[in-house]
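Structure ticket #2291
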Amino acid sequence: MLLPLMLCAAIPATVQEESKVPPYTLPDPLVCADGRRVTDAKTWNEVRRPEVFRLVEENMFGRTPDTARLQADAVVEVREQSKDAFGGKATRTQFRVWPIGKQGPSFDMLLYVPNGAKRPAPVFVGLNFGGNHTTAEEPGVFVPASWVSKQWALKGTAQADPAQRGGQARRWEFEALVDRGYASATAYYGDFEPDHPEGWKSGFRAAVSPDGVNTKWRDGEWGAIGCWAWGLSRMLDVLEKVPSVDAGRAAVHGHSRLGKAALWAGAQDRRFAFVISNNSGCGGAALNKRIFGETVGVISGHYPGRGFPHWFTARFETFSEKEDKLPLDAHYLLALVAPRPLYVASASEDSWADPLGEFLGAVHADPVYQVLGQPGLGTKEFPPVGQPVGRTVGYHLRAGKHDILLEDWKNYADFADRHLKSR
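Resolution: structure written out below.
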């Protein structure tokens, strides 16, 4: 969650004016640890990319455990299916999935697929904040039984409020995507881990740990963002077995904290063909060393009463007010998507997420795309509001606040038309 601008003045080392951004030097993603410069795809893939990956893993999100052995016990059940969604335009399927077997937790996945498609449809894959029922107004979409934050809960409880049905439908635009030939899949992020400091104990971080809830959160271990990213990959596992969906043309997306999770999922799981970051800010696409808006100290919980330390690995907080010591920045995370299509989006009134910093994250990932034979963003000029730019890397600055709207989805679908539908 991004804090209101009125609180910014009370937060040390945070700026809201471009003239106050301190001088900073970004590390070069194309210089190997031994000093070699990367000039070809082989050196990037075999030497430098693993180094960049480890820097992101060790300093930001933590190590995702290898769960392949546990996933062999995965169980997928279809809870409901209707071919009459959106007036017969689409088939709605609701799955319950036990990704590590029925001895572990489950998640519910909602899928819409266009009817009458001549071949399996490309698919947008993303997590939602309030439960699947909030993403669509259809009465048949199930309400989650897991923990929800008070914004989505019945008063005085942590239980989902059925009256919130469709409350976030404008952020998903399922029908508009169906009209353009795209499937959409979503799951509630709290099914993978409730979003509070003790949430890991009832989520998949405890379930896949050999020590269960008795484990201690050690430096280097994954945080909630890592768990949510893992969940996105488990959704893709299911989609690979749905004949009407082309999982080889899957776009992973997310807004705000879930935009960070989408970037980390795309960095780790190269099955995702297209990666989208919407207003992901600090810890996502925005350059941390600018200390503009939300900072490492704020987001990592360095200041009492603020932040989300459970999102990250413990080491990230040690760079609070020491962003100049970070051995990486957001462009490293974005570069891990290369050479696949990447889209970064900002909002003009979302200064807490640092729109210019998000754009510059994409700019500084560009050299990696070029080494891999892709044109990347193709510009260093910050575009005007409402004018998308980019080639293999896309960017737009939408008028308005921290949100995801129909304009954003139109740009994502236009970009997907260029990069996914042609495949």
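Closing remark: The radius of gyration is 20 Å.
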